[in-house]
Structure formats: C-alpha cells, structure tokens
Amino acid sequence: MSTLAARALLAVVFWPSLFFFWFLGPFVFFLLSTTSSEVCTRLETRAEFLGAANGTLPMLALQTLLYAVPIACLVLWSRLLPDPARTRHIVTCIKLFAVAAVLGALWEYGSSLACDGYGQPFFSPAWKMTSYLPIANLAVNLPLYVLVFSLGRAFSMREDDPAADANRPDENAA
After folding, report:
1. What is the distance of C-alpha 38 from the center of its chain?
2. The pTM is what?
3. Which end of the chain is more exposed for a tag (fewer CB within 10 A), N or C?
4. What percent of the chain has pLDDT above 70?
5. Where along the chain do its domains lie?
C-alpha cells in the first residue's frame, strides 16, 4: 500500500470521527451517560445513586475510546510521515486528550451522583463541585481541538514531491 493511499485512508477515518465524535458526540454521550431527571426522582438511597452512577462507567469508557480515534489517526500519520515538530504536537495532543478525558469523566460521573435535587446528603459536597468542571474541560478542549484540526489538515493535505514531478513528462512541451 502506498503512503499516499494510507494517508487517504486515515483521512477517511479521521475527519468523520473528528466531526461526529468530537463535535456532536459530547451532547449525545452526556445525555446517555448521566442519570436522567426521571430516574433521579426514583432514587432514594445512597446505594441506588451509586448504582446509577456506576452504570455510567461503561458508557464513559466507550466514549473515551471513540474520542481517541482522531488521536490514533494522528499517531499513525506521524508514523507514515515522521516529522519531529509534528511529533511534539501529537504528544501535546495526547496529554491534552488525557486531561480532557479525566475531566469529562469526573464531570459526567459526578453529575450522576449530584442529580439529587432534594438536598439529601448521600455524598460529599465535593461531587457538587464537579458542576464547574465543564469550564476547565473547555479550557483544555479548545486548544486540543485547534491543534488536532490543524495537524489533521497538515497530514491529510497532499504534499507534492518534486522528485516525482521531475520524472513526469511535460504535457505542454511539443
């Protein structure tokens, strides 16, 4: 398989996963992974709340795996086209992604524990502090999105090879 074909295949995976998983996914997964307001009114004991919150863990793991697809594409692209500057940026993306994944999981898990609107003291008030995590997550995700988008654009753009162009006969020469 040629390098250009492999790059194109990665682009076919990278761009849809970036837009669908990273831009639309958070809304869908947040709705699916947190304890809904209908369920909250039926939860009355600490064990029920904890069970509902722990039920979100498989969804959070799936969410993190899906979100990692664009990062994995960047890593594979860097294997095809090694460049130390891009590699440093990819390492930065991986670190930002790890921080964003932890903040997102804490937020979604914590919001599952803090959904009780009746003031029942089942859990530490620290879980209610998770309502501030979206601000921190946004501060991490914005540079991550910009960096991943720019790296994806750089990797998926065709870089013309002057050596290959020299071997091509000039069509305009008579």
Report:
1. 28
2. 0.75
3. C
4. 68
5. 3-158
* Start-to-end C-alpha separation, the chain: 35
| Cα 66 to Cα 174: distance, rounded to the nearest angstrom | 54
* DSSP track, the chain: --HHHHHHHHHHHHHHHIIIIIIIHHHHHHHHHSPPHHHHTT--SHHHHHHHHHTTHHHHHHHHHHHHHHHHHHHHHHHHS--HHHHHHHHHHHHHHHHHHHHHHHHHHHHHHT--TT----S-GGGGGGGGHHHHHHHHHHHHHHHHHHHHHHHHS----HHHHHHSPPTT--
Length of the chain: 174
Cα gap 37→39, rounded to integer Å: 5
Are 131 and 49 in contact by the 8 Å Cβ rule? The answer is: no
Contact 151, 86 (CB under 8 A): yes
pLDDT, tens digit, 9 for 90 and up, residues 78-135: 998 888 999 999 999 999 999 999 988 888 777 766 655 555 555 666 767 777 888 8
